[in-house]
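Appendix B: complex inputs.
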Amino acid sequence: MTIALDTRPLDVLSDFPAIPAGWAYLDTAATSQKPRPVIDAITRGYGETYATVHRGVYQRSADMTFAYEAARERVAKFLGGAANEVVFVRGATEGINLVAQCWAGTHLKAGDRILLSTLEHHSNIVPWQMVAERIGAEIDVVPLTADQRIDLDAMAAMLTPAHKLVALAHVSNVLGSVLDARRAADLAHGVGAKILLDGCQAVPRMAVDMAALDCDFYVFSGHKLYGPTGIGVLWGRYELLDAMPPYQGGGSMIDKVTFAKTTYAPPPGRFEAGTPHIIGVVGLHAAIDYVDGIGLDRIHAHETALVRQAREALSKLNSVKLFGPDDSAGIVSFAVEGVHPHDVATILDEGNVAIRAGHHCAQPLMEALGVPATARASFGVYNGADDIAALVAGIERVTRIFG
Ligand SMILES: Cc1ncc(COP(=O)(O)O)c(C=O)c1O
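Resulting structure:
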């Protein structure tokens, strides 16, 4: 795809009431700010239309159930899957834990192998370690290329029929590197492994399509997609979900309960025990409508252009070292020579620029990069060239202060 280098604002800043004038919010990879339509949907949900779902026979509850299931249909359309393949979870973390416990925990045996990469978020490392330890499976780690992408040539050489699952970030939350997800899926399937993609940083930044990616599981968090916290999605191929036992028991996930034996509902209900985050789901629906209204191709082009402009401006500062490839999606990690990233972030904050500093829940990646932490600027639909100017001015101030 040709990227139009256009860093003009998408003209949506006024949709975001929590971004005051003059504040450069550059921490969207951690969580995005919320547009008015999402805030309104949540307010309306609690203030006008609220009731439980899947339980009440009264009209209000039937309407709320309809809205809840309409959101599931909307997510399915957004991802290019079927509604019965969409499981509502608390976020990407819960989605990965669910697959680790319910799929890997029941389909893997001692000696089987799981393949991860060096750049994974802890959410896509620790759940696999927990299940691997329990069943005696082994974990292998794909290294990075020189330009800090997941090295798919190395992955091709590492994969064996003992690998049953590959779990990779679609976009790195630290480096912004974009995975060639289809090639990764083809490689995994070539040895009979399933592939899970952690789409947390991809879904807000590019159009995704489950059929085109040919993945088996895909997870993302609503709060990074301009939606509420506490809601996320696990998409899984229906036949895989159908062959998985639930990992939480309770209301809604059952077919029939007796003390002698309980049978479970089909997916996705089987994995949604208890009263769900009803208004979270409603807010997520509004968020998907919002980003689709702008257009994910436009968002992708805009953020890629911002990254290029930021990298170009930062590379002119002698003290700055950049991480990640030039075509990163929406995220730029960097270091300022001789200054701890926390000090960089604190001084930037004094100039009304909000960035993230730390290990970004990716300690193995920090080790591979040979740093304890990085500073990270990440963009959203509301950012523009003025935010990059504020970032650069802030870093110039950092270098002046630290000499
Ligand atoms: C790539 C990636 N994976 C997983 C997560 C975990 O998301 P959550 O904390 O919303 O479950 C994050 C959040 O930073 C992320 O960036």
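The chain is about 40% helix and 15% strand.
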